[in-house]
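Worked example

This section walks through a single chain of length 266. The input is the sequence exactly as stored; nothing has been trimmed or padded.
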Amino acid sequence: MDETRELKLWDDPAVESTLKLFLNPGAGPGEPRPLVVVLPGGGYYIRAPHEADPVAQWFNRLGFHAAVCHYRVVPHRYPAALSDAQRAIRTVRHNAAAWGVDPNRIGALGFSAGGHLACCCANFGDDGLPEGDAIARTPSRANALIACYPVTSFIAEFAHFGSRDAILGDEPDPELVHKLSVENTVTPQNPPAFLWHTAEDNLDVRNPLIYASALAAAKIPFALHVYPRGPHGLGLAETHATSVRNWPRDCAEWFAEINWMKEPQA
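Given that input, the structure is written out below as tokens.
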């Protein structure tokens, strides 16, 4: 079994979406590990490299498996990116036994617009589609959400309209705007969540705050960290001079609290 390899998500040769696996080399037979699907940000225009492979490698250091989803961006529009992200979760769960993955500990992590996509995965998880191949019939539910400086709302004064227009166009359907403003579509079936942002971010900090409020209303457990300083797009923030560099440690402690790992580490 290759520890790092890239798979096409769809049989259709016209669809180039892929899933890059980072299976933990330390995982032994009969020892299923959690896996987190990483969704890089980029406003639904690009997928930022520093929010991709380095994050998957960090998860490997935690003892997890990871996979980077290279979902469709502009010129593709909704629901292309969400279909890709859900297909990624289905693919991992379908192959859980072969890859040494715990099918009940599959998370979705996203940055910025990728954070919006991860929130969509958390809000719109299903128990499998009625038609399609065996992967399509596999549940797409994420068991944990990690949203890093996420875009959440498309309707408020602090919305990120670049991301909205990228997936919905210049004159979006109001019903889709409401649906994809993810604070409106949290359900009691949402998984536990870890959210973080900085107060200085040019993406308004109220984005994760309103999503956290929706989680609270639905009685979904969550952690919310707002670090005082730091710009947008920090990724792992390992070299940043302020407290935001501690977000991976805080996230690892949260994983320990939800019983995804034995001891906090970063």
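What to look for: The longest strand covers residues 101-111.
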